[in-house]
Amino acid sequence: MQEIEFNRVSGLHPKAAALVKQLHAVSFTASVKDIDPAGLLALARLYPIHVVEKESPIVTDAKESVVQEESTFQVIAGFRLYELMCTARVLSVQDAQLLNLIPVIIHQNIKPKEIVALAELDLAGSPLLFSLGNKVFEQLRLIKNHVSADTLNVLPKYRNLRYVKDTSLPQQADELDA
Known about the structure:
Layout lengths: L1 E4 L3 E4 L1 H9 L14 H10 L2 E6 L3 E3 L5 E3 L3 E6 L1 H13 L1 H6 L2 E7 L4 H19 L5 H11 L2 H5 L19 H4 L2
Parallel strand pairs: 2-6, 3-7
Antiparallel strand pairs: 1-7, 3-6, 4-5
């Protein structure tokens, strides 16, 4: 795993972008309000964004000297985390500074077919791997009650009683069936 500057990520790889566009209706529970930037960075260390290097154009400067531009990267997996990081960076200058260096896995010599396979696996497998079962409130409550406050501090969703009821409060019947 390596770290690169966030602004060197130019967006999604075209092969991956086409697949993301086709699956635009797949929705995720987490929003940028649910995970602090520090939490996003910690999650990126656990689940790095996968990128490929985009070919850099060779340009000439004012003195007609050949100059190689700094290379940029395109995302091929880790789309949801990348999306949340982009949103956090737009919403706050402080968050943009915190998310300046991000952990990534750089794939080299990867074929277009392999890029599509990784993108498909991310888009189809991540919801299965990370989704909660059919009793969401019960599971969120269980997590909240057994995870350290330090961890929960970077996950604001657990601080908001609208999302996760405290166990000391009586449960409502509709929540038990959620």
